[in-house]
Amino acid sequence: MPQLPQIQSVKAPDRAVVDATKPRRFKYFNLPFLIVLALLVSYGLVIVYTAVYNDADYSFSRQLACVAIGAVVMIVIGRFDYRNLSDFTTVLLVVSVALILSPHIPGLGTDAGMGAQSWIKVGIQVQPGEFAKITVILLAASVVSRYGGRLDDVREYLKALGIMLVPFLCIMTQPDLGTGLVYLFITAVALVVGGARPKFLLITLVAGIAAIAAVFAIDQVLYDATGEYKLLKQYQRNRLLVFLEHDSVNLSDEGWNLKQAQVAIGSGGLFGKGLFNATQATLGFLPEAPTDFIFCVLAEQLGFFGVMALLALYAALVLICFRIAGASSDLFGTIIVMCTVGMWLFQILENIGMTLGLMPITGIPLPFVSYGSTGMVMNFMLLGLIGSVWAHNGR
Amino acid sequence: MLAAIIATIVTVVVLIIALVVVFTIRNRTKSPKASSKRMDVRAINTVGVGARSRGRGHADARVNAPQTSATNLGETLRPRFIAMGVLAAGIFGSLAVKAWSLQSNSETYRKEADENQYTTVSTPAPRGYIYDADGIELVRNRKSLTVLADVEVADDRTVVQRLSAVLGIPHNVVRYRIQDATTGAQSQRVVASDVDLRNIAFISEHLSAFPGVTTQERSVREYPWGALAAHALGYASTADDKDLETPIDGAELEMGDVVGKSGVEAGYERLLAGTHGQRVLVAAADGTVQRVVSETDPEKGNDIYLTIKAPVQYKIDQMLADLVAPTDATIGTGKGDSASAVVMDVRDGSIVAMASYPTFSPEVFVGGIGDDMWSLYTKDSEFQPLLNRVIAGNYAAASTFKAFTGLAGLAYGFADTGRSWDCTGSWDGFNTGAPQKCWLRTGHGPISFREGIVQSCDTVFYEIGKNFFQAGASQGGTISDTAMQEYVEKYGFGKTTGIDIPSEAAGRVPTPQWKAEHFADYPEAQQWMGGDLTNMVIGQGDVLVTPLQMAVAYGAIATGNLMRPHLFKEARNSSGEVVVSFEPEVTGVPDVPPENLEIMRDALHGVATENESIAKLFGEHGIDAAAKTGTAEYSDGKNESAWFVCYAPFDDPKYVVACQVNHGGGGSEVAAPLGVEIMAAVLAADAGELDPTVGVVAASSGKYIPLPLKSDGSGRTD
């Protein structure tokens, strides 16, 4: 073996490079971020406990375990350098599609009695569509960040849009419109933050609305021809109708759900009925109280001020995430954080909005509050990514 | 207004927060201190990305070109962050505003939530008991464990078979009972009453295996004497839809309550029905009860004491059964197809006994009567056991009517004690060529008014009727065409007596006007004829009366007063205090000259003392009475119907008895022995000599054989 020359001295690397590539061990996580997160998750756990403590169908310890697992996963992911992921666009796309389509695999998928093929059973029941939110965010970030913050070429815009629409089209085969809308929203945020031309976005929006109108029109034509709606299921129509005319008396299940949700929220008043004093939720008037309608449980027990506290925590989380996004060392990180924030915002808007009658009813969980293991672990994974963005921002 | 203000404030606050955030981010990106290092780092990174991308040939340099400066990137990102901030502020703001609008006026929602969680269940109150005049229980309550099911359960094979297995009832019977609609479309159907506690416990513990099935402990009616006085007592059963829609004034009727449907049960529903208890429950959406918030106990209804004397009633019930269906409880083996009898105290209108045969068992209505029993009790071919013939049986009055038409004749001078008629057995006073016959075809010969009553000579009354007809205004006479009717109506005929139980019939006293209306479609039959009056004068033709009307009217002959008949004596509350008691009510004093009344009383006394067959009957019991028989004839060949009315003691009238045996034969042969026996029993009871035994009375079996038509051509025998 030939002898290598002895190195006497090494020029110290550029400090900036060192700072950027070496994470700081003790300022690993943003402290306000952790505090707000702890408050939010504890608040959610308290509410979930009051909703499930008397219900054999749900297990609070399972929810606790999810939070614990989530916390560990968050720390692990936080140590990992997210930037390693930016090149794997194709892999991310494949993983997303595989996850979203996995419930279609015979023997693995189940509709869990809910009508949509959204679950798989691997020992426990999980919703791969939830986990796919992470890969969809990463995919969007990896696609858009390529353009360095300026996306003003039509062909490139369409290419990026085309890639990002793939997960949406896949989820619509389950079908799960709620999650699909989340994907679309993530895509939209990525395009906005990624610098797509406002003109493109506007045209896309118009096209989207036109597409929805077309779906309804075609469905109506199919109905006239075959006597049944083919594209939209009856419950989807009902939900939309209930939303559009929720002041009128509507005896459908969806109308009843909305009515009971509003009774729950309204009866909470300013200060609420007190923890464990919810009647709408514990007596079964609220459907799916611990999951989709958890906000009503909170609003009934803690009233308007409890609601404001929740919104304040969310707002604080969003603010801190904005800071982290702004402080990111690269566009990829910024887009990851902004897409995550956008996703949460959309879920908050949809979940709370539907119970308030602002949005149509769709089964979207409330981040960090709703009962459910997949969503909770998924959100913690995203927190881990955000942590990673913060940790690797080079400061 | 306040809401709008606060909503605005909230929105403003949220917007301010959003703006602060936006500006903070802006400042940070601008701050040279913060960005100096990042600038370099970013430059390195972007270069790296660009290099890698180029290597893979994915993105071109054109795209990467503007990215070389980090400050440029920060500047380009700023408006996008602002857009996201505004979006977040908009979302939080609108959610807060909407939450405020719902939660600031929580009153209506709170009320709705309370309506959701609290369920008020009324617990049925036991009905009051019913006693006879001397405190013998006639109707009481007992507890019954009942299994009920929703109508839909009939379609659920597994549940039906489970019920069948647990209750030991064939499954087709279970299904049949659930489908049975007599208790009303909405109510739960009784699958089984008086179920063993063990089986009830099993069902209650496995309710999830019996969807739509409930178990209840009900307080139900119990009839210790079976069908005794069934028509007077009436029956009670679960309220049906009609009852629930139109409850008696002030009654709070709930689904599943038992209500009186006939007789005293219906007439005194308000006294008998207790006050519901109330339980306020917290119930879940699926109906499972979580806890009881408050509870008030139900209050039992008042006990009612009747004027009926159970031992007398028992005797009469048995007499009627023995008369009509002596063999194997089969109608047709005795006299007639049905019979009824009523005993009234002429002094105050108290009904001492009221019996109608065929009778029914009120017990079968407990928990809902089955379709088969219902049809047995109401179908014409089974002679309608539910019909209370005493108050609702419209019958031709026959010769018992002569007492009143006779009084009319006396009043208008068409009869007097000095006058004599000649009865040849056949009478054709209107020269129609179709003579009317006296019941004694051979004729009574010369006969006085008094004898005309005693022997019940028809000819005397044909003459009186003819006189009324010819004196009528339409015949050029001086009196009203309806003079006789009006006179008869003074005694209460043609209208209800006002007895205190429902469903009373009014009977009919025909008038020219009635006939014209009745035969509106047959102009040739509308003409009021002399024959109408001569028929009416002997209680035939279109005259219809009820046994109760007859009793009240004869009571008025005995005392001079028309009394309102009643079964109610008094009501006592749960502590035994009398809360209501009846007041005798004189409903009318027929305006009849006293001397005429004396003539009539004397003549009726003559029936009881001089008419051989009748006098013999009364003689056996040493009763000094006034009486009248009647035999109603039918033109369709059916057997005659027998009447007998009497009051006693003659000098100091206490009781009047009226009885009718439908298609049973002649009054003196069939009805008189019955009526005299009844009177004897009543007087014996009054004297404390009647056997005080009360036994169980059997209801109609529903069995009957065809009745013979008129046995011979001899016609009436009274």
UniProtKB/TrEMBL annotation, chain A:
The keyword Mitochondrion does not apply. It is found in: Membrane. It comes from the Bacteria. Keywords: Cell shape, Membrane, Transmembrane, Transmembrane helix. It is a multi-pass membrane protein. The chain crosses the membrane at residues 31-52, 64-82, 88-110, 160-193, 200-223, 302-324, 331-349, 369-391. This is Rod shape-determining protein RodA. The lineage of its organism: Bacteria, Bacillati, Actinomycetota, Coriobacteriia, Eggerthellales.
From TrEMBL, chain B:
It is a single-pass membrane protein. Residues 123-292 form the Penicillin-binding protein dimerisation domain. The chain crosses the membrane at residues 6-25, 81-101. It comes from the Bacteria. The keyword Signal does not apply. Residues 340-679 form the Penicillin-binding protein transpeptidase domain. Keywords: Cell inner membrane, Cell membrane, Cell shape, Cell wall biogenesis/degradation, Hydrolase, Membrane, Peptidoglycan synthesis, Protease, Transmembrane, Transmembrane helix. Pfam families: PBP_dimer, Transpeptidase. It is found in: Cell membrane; Membrane. Belongs to the transpeptidase family. This is Penicillin-binding protein 2. It comes from Raoultibacter timonensis.
